[in-house]
Amino acid sequence: MTLSAPTASSDPIAERVLHRDGMVLVLDKPAGLPVHPGPKGGVTLHDLLDHLRFGLPRKPELAHRLDKDTSGCLVLGRHPKAIALLNKLFADGKVDKTYVAVTKGAPAEDTGRIDQPLAKRSPHRGWWMQAVPKGTPGALEAVTDWRVLFRGEGLAVMALSPVTGRTHQLRAHLSHLGFPILGDSIYGGASRLPGGPVLHLHSRRVVLPVAKNGPPLTVSAPFPAHVKETIAALGGDVSVLEEAADGAF
Fold it and tell me: Which one of 33, 61, 99, 116 has the largest count of C-beta atoms within 10 Å of its C-beta?
């Protein structure tokens, strides 16, 4: 799907809404779409928010963010009260998130936890992170739970649950573990030239405890085409792995 700046007759981004109620939107963000304007310009999700008002006077606002090349569940609040609640839930670590990654190999174990602080790799590239020893000045605590869902020839499919929410946490942690994400040009050695593999990191599921006296809101995003194609080439069953990811944690 090709996304462009808003026009009166075109709103393809609205077709990617997975859930909508009076407070919350959950969007299936496509890989390659930045959520915020950057130095290179181009269309971003910020330019498309008018298409997600659905009759309300205000544009929705992001409750968290995904990297440009990460696909899947992205949560937005539809009005100030909702945005404040969602921001607090994310800040307090009360939102359960499950990601799926295709990785270059996998640990011998089936489950585990990465408890490794992260720090900026360079003051000039503040979003590039690196794993550092505990006690390193300026380092931030970073914890990721993981589960291997499928092992293929040279690649694996892993479910990931970030306990903390650091910049590039999953990408940096898997690289530190020795099993970087397929298509990762920063932490996995993938080429930045056109035609290389797309980052195989997908926000599969979010669980939002937004109701005071009701069950949490649970939303899942289907695997994108590039992930499906890779899994199929490995001999995996996409529908089985999607279900397995939802029950991984």
Answer: 99
